[in-house]
Design goal:
about 575 residues, 25 helices, about 75% helix, single chain, mainly alpha, Serine Threonine Protein Phosphatase 5, Tetratricopeptide repeat, elongated
């Protein structure tokens, strides 16, 4: 052992590596034993342990004395962990290695199960529009291959099938039916229904049969019957002895609640939250946080939507801690993003900033722009709330906020969203303006205008009126920019400049057929002229405001104003007109 100050101890390092390999070997054997006795809770727990303790291990690290099934189990566990973390490329690679290893030893059942797992990954990628860099056949092609292999293995007399092969046939049939149902592949759904009817009975897995029947009832539109079927099954279960069955029943009931309406907005949110919260808690209690990761993230989303930020934060924090050591993948980034949002709502701005900023950095490497933009937004709000959050000792948190907004603007530009990019820069300008940094605010505003005036921008602005090529909406956004610029100069105590931008905003709003916006800006210009002692210009601006107001449903037309903006315009106009006539 090295003396203090002589550097690392090579022998100690070797002993540590050897111990780690022994632990991994033991885990592989425990996993095989758990699968053989049908202990799903232990299998789930071991998958989570593999992800948090052995993710960086490779097959080359395994000792020479391992059996073929033990070596194959390494790929099985790594594939399962990768799948639950949404590391789809890694999942595909490991499933293929698993299938190759099983085929090389003549293990027909495990090879079939690997093909079923590959089919489910293809389904997930297609349903979620996930990014996949490796080549993977479409789920329809894989379903066809899976049906062929099930038919081949299942053609043997029942007495010739091993217990392992029976379980693999049952699981493969269920996976194929799930895929065919989810992808609405009607022909293959019928084929796999027949497989399930035969092979789940053959394997004697009552719970699988019940949940599969409920899934198909739901797919047939018989939701009430599906719910009753699962609820009756759940009432018979004891969570102490059947935790995974309880999890799967609540998971399915949560899905039924999620799809209770015709649209996502019509879902039974209370039901989703109730059932999936049980799943999230149960996965933690059984030492299988990886299994409950998606449900925990979705529960936190719902809790945040209800304003229960403290509960969302605590659940996300517990999951983050339980998954310490797992690779940073999409699923974990989603959890950290939702934890950052809950931290912000729970009045923990420093933690919200640190979480959101680091998650945005990782997310930028994945290509998930939506998550990256959400985290940049959370980080900006948190930095502003914290005052000096993330500034490494500087009291000027405003530039931290601006830097985040500038990153968001750049990402919007990369996505072909110039209006959103300009909006980010204008938000940054308002932040600088409120801090008295007017020259910086003007710089940011000018950058926003250059984005809007770019020749490529009109084609990228979504039209809101049939027949519009985007030019009307672009005109509106330029008018809105002028309104903001007027406010900037007004806050900078330069009303002589502010009034010109207010007038330009009014004219552009009129051109965009937003008469309320035009009236508001003429009223604003009138106020500034009055403050400068220019009564004639004030009256002229009020006349122009009145001209716009008469085009709206309101007092002049005998009706009520259509929105609060029109109310504000009328109130401002009448107050100034009365003042001038008083």
């Amino acid at each position: 052992m090295a003396e203090p100050g002589q550097g690392p101890d090579p022998e100690g390092s070797r002993n540590s590596d050897d111990r780690k390999i022994r632990e991994l070997t033991g885990l592989l054997r425990e996993s095989l034993a758990a699968s053989a006795r049908g202990d799903h809770a232990e299998s789930w727990s071991l998958t989570s342990r593999f992800a948090t303790e052995f993710w960086l291990a490779s097959p080359d690290d395994l000792p020479d004395g391992l059996t073929g099934p033990e070596r194959t189990e390494f790929h099985v566990l790594r594939a399962a962990a990768a799948d639950r973390m949404d590391l789809h490329d890694e999942a595909v690679a490991e499933i293929r290695a698993w299938r190759t290893a099983a085929q090389s030893t003549g293990a027909a059942g495990p090879a079939l199960l690997a093909l079923a797992s590959l089919t489910l990954v293809a389904m997930t990628v297609e349903c979620d529009d996930a990014v996949l860099t490796t080549t993977l056949p479409p789920s329809a092609a894989l379903l066809h291959d899976l049906a062929g292999e099930i038919s081949g293995l299942g053609a043997r007399p029942d007495s010739d099938l091993t217990a392992e092969e029976r379980v693999c046939l049952s699981l493969a049939a269920g996976a194929g039916l799930t895929c065919a149902t989810s992808t609405e592949h009607t022909a293959m759904r019928g084929i796999f229904r027949e497989f399930v009817d035969r092979f789940t009975t053959l394997a004697g897995q009552e719970g699988d049969r019940i949940l599969t029947r409920a899934q198909q009832l739901h797919a047939d539109g018989r939701t009430a019957d599906a719910v009753d079927t699962v609820s009756a099954y759940l009432a018979r279960l004891d969570v102490a002895t059947s935790p995974t069955q309880v999890y799967e029943a609540h998971d399915m009931l949560g899905f039924f609640a999620l799809t209770a309406g015709d649209t996502a907005g019509d879902m039974d949110a209370e039901g989703v939250l109730r059932h999936w919260r049980v799943c999230a808690d149960l996965a933690l209690e059984t030492g299988a946080p990886l299994e409950g990761l998606h449900r925990a993230e979705q529960v936190c989303q719902l809790l945040n939507a209800e304003g229960d930020y403290d509960s969302a934060y605590e659940l996300a924090r517990r999951y983050d801690a339980a998954l310490d050591g797992a690779p940073v993948g999409p699923a974990l980034l989603n959890l950290r993003a939702v934890r950052a949002r809950s931290a912000l709502g729970a009045d923990l701005p420093y933690e919200a900033f640190a979480l959101a900023a680091s998650t945005a950095d990782w997310s930028a490497l994945t290509g998930d722009d939506e998550r990256t933009l959400a985290c940049l937004s959370i980080a900006a709000m948190a930095a502003e709330d914290a005052g000096e959050a993330g500034t490494s000792g500087s009291s000027n948190s405003g530039e931290t906020v601006v830097a985040l907004l500038e990153r968001a603007a750049a990402l919007h530009l990369d996505r072909g969203e110039p209006v959103d990019a300009a909006r980010m820069l204008r938000t940054a300008a308002r932040e600088r303006c409120s801090s008295g940094e007017f020259s910086r605010a003007v710089e940011l505003m000018e950058r926003a205008l250059r984005v809007l005036e770019d020749p490529a921008t009109p084609a990228q602005v979504p039209a809101t009126v049939p027949g519009d090529d985007g030019s009307d909406m672009l005109t509106w956004h330029v008018a809105d920019w002028n309104e903001d610029m007027s406010s900037v100069w007004e806050m900078a105590d330069r009303p002589d400049l502010a009034v010109g931008y207010a007038e330009r905003a009014a004219r552009l709003f009129r051109e965009a057929r937003d008469h309320s916006g035009a009236a508001l800006n003429w009223v604003s210009a009138a106020e500034m002229y009055l403050d400068q002692g220019d009564g004639d210009s004030c009256d002229r601006a009020l006349d122009l405001a009145h001209s716009e107001l008469t085009r709206l449903p309101g007092p002049a037309g005998g009706g009520e104003p259509a929105d609060t903006g029109e109310n504000a315009a009328w109130e401002g106009y009448l107050a100034l007109r009365n003042l001038r006539q008083g």
